[in-house]
Design brief:
Blueprint lengths: L2 H9 L4 H52 L12 H17 L2 H11 L5 H8 L3 H21 L5
């Protein structure tokens, strides 16, 4: 049915006009609305991930500030060999930790998880995570001092 006849049915207040309109334009309208929903969804997800990235950045900065007391902040430590040696020493330190301690340490300082996220993942309280991280940092500092890494 052409558009003029459908409009005429609307002016007659006929319910057949709605059925004819659905037959002619229903599929197009559904496709269009579905595509609009997908576009809005993608825009919303991009905004969400951008905000999450900003939050992660903040958590990551805090995590780095906590660990920097254990690692030297010398501007001369730009040599790649020294950085590799430091990484090797830290890897050996991680081998001395229990699996739970290693997970806590890595989730905080490699993935920048919050204390609450770590507590949920490991099944302990936030306070317990905080205490354990303090002890692990102290152990790391001692480990680095024993190996004569400038702290």
């Amino acid at each position: 049915m052409d558009d003029e006849k459908i409009i005429a049915l609307f002016f007659e207040r006929s319910e057949q006009a709605i059925r004819e309109l659905d037959i002619k334009y229903g599929k197009i309208c559904h496709t269009l609305s579905y595509n609009i929903v997908k576009i809005v969804r993608n825009i919303s997800l991009k905004i969400y991930w951008r905000k999450e990235a900003a939050k992660r950045s903040g958590h990551y900065t805090i995590a780095l500030e906590e660990i920097e007391a254990c690692i030297a902040d010398r501007k001369t430590v730009e040599n790649e060999m020294e950085a590799r040696e430091l990484a090797r020493i830290i890897e050996k330190f991680l081998d001395t930790l229990t699996v739970k301690e290693r997970v806590i340490f890595m989730r905080r300082y490699a993935y920048a998880d919050t204390y609450a996220d770590i507590a949920r993942r490991v099944g302990i309280s936030k306070k317990n995570v905080s205490v354990r991280l303090t002890l692990i940092r102290r152990k790391l500092k001692e480990h680095l001092m024993e190996r004569e890494v400038f702290v």
